[in-house]
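Deliverable D4.2, example record:
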Amino acid sequence: MEFKKVTREWDTLKKDAMERAKNAAPLVKEGKIVDAKDTVALLEAVIKPYDKVNIEGNNQKQADFLAKCLCQVDPAKIHDLHMVQSVLTLPEHLDVFEKGIAKKLDMSFSGPQAGRIAQFLQEGKLELGAIHTYLELYGRYFLDLTPRVALVAATMADREGNLFTGFSTEDTPAIVEATKFRQGIVIAQVNQIVDKLPRVDIPADWVDYVIQSPKPFYIEPLFTRDPALITDAQVLKGMMAIKGIYGEYEVASLNHGIGFDTAAIELLLPTYGEELGLKGKICKNFILNPHPTLIPAIETGWVESVHCFGGELGMEDYVAARSDIFFVGPDGSMRSNRAFSQTAGHYAIDMFIGGTLQIDPYGNSSTATANRVAGFGGAPNMGCDPKGRRHSSGAWLKCGEEYALNKELWGPVRRGKRLVVQLAETFREKLAPGFVEELDAFKLAKNANLSIEPVMIYGDDLTHIITEEGIAYLPKCRNMEERTAAIRGIAGFTEVGMKADPKETKRLRELGIIKTPQDLGIDMSRANRSMLAAKNVHDLVEWSGGLYNPPAKFRNW
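Output generated by the structure prediction step:
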């Protein structure tokens, strides 16, 4: 057989990068440093129409100055960009679409911009590639969505272009490595240019241009929850979680989703958890941002390790002083990494527990509403049963042994199952039901022309639901009919719960598929805020020995 070799150039990407660098050369002041006033000109020099571009947008840290500058480029020169970024938080992240600078979007989470994305989709201002999990999108950075130009944020740079990403590293390593090693252009906005860095997080060889922004990058204290706002209902659900799930399965490694429900659990560990004799058996290894509400549990010896997706404003000094617990560098500051934390969350932990907005009778849950393309970040990675897992643990094996269909689906092989727990209120604020016959995700898919419904956690991955009515132990259900009955049995006076058959609910309680607070032996009169180890933010500061420095908006003393 005769083979015909392809005749082509094999270094076109490198030549293209050199051409872009040549266009930008007059703007470089010293080494790799460009003045902030020349940023728009720099972007026009190195970005071309139809490029894939990443603006670093994380849950917290934002390359906000570069985002503002991208909105100021000439749409006649730069247009139809394909934005590939995990989080869209700032108005500028969507202004580029309104101005015609960008056209297509691949993302993971949008939070404050969710409604605007849905509107832009309907108006034809934006094409949506897909709503990814974080890991899924990072994976595609190294596959078919590699940024041609990446705009990132760092705390400091030195004059050679080395970067210190510091306490809130988040997405930076994944973005920079994917971009630079496929001959792309990396531009970093930094808070400060210094002679010597505390440590080098991104080497200068991976960075093309450094800009000291006029003010420090924006960072959101996303994971701070004031204990004063935790309700008695959340305390009750926390007590049920600790006794009925954490204690029953002896969950040692886990992730807590964002919210007051999990904040309540963290503040119940030194009180109710201690009372149950669970210290040393549960909640030892966390994949978690440095939640201030975890401070009392750390101080009372519950926690062995915490690896963080990102930082949290005000927790810098406390984390640095607890280097046995957090991942702290020789320089004395924490190193976070969203990609590694998501990997640990996907494969290594025994349980994911977090809140949701809607659950249907089949156990599918979503935070998407009819006109909001919010995305889910990492919840689908942590809130799933990862089929690639090959290490065992007690909690994982116990949940697998309870799985009523294990023999039918697995045969004689012994396997475990990840605990995936959703905390839900039967009715949320403004009497919005937490349980619905059909998720709003179906309407959103139609309104936004999505090919699949944006479901956060699929029903077959979900193992437990906790409401103020009780806990549904879904792996114990033998079929969909029993599963639906279990969900209806804890759904309260919602349209889902009103269809519950009291006799069937009673039978499921007898089988241990539903457990009410009474079934768990919880004294309802004690389920109130007096059980919390800290009642307000000031208490957290005192627990930390003054090391926690909460943002101004959380100070009321």
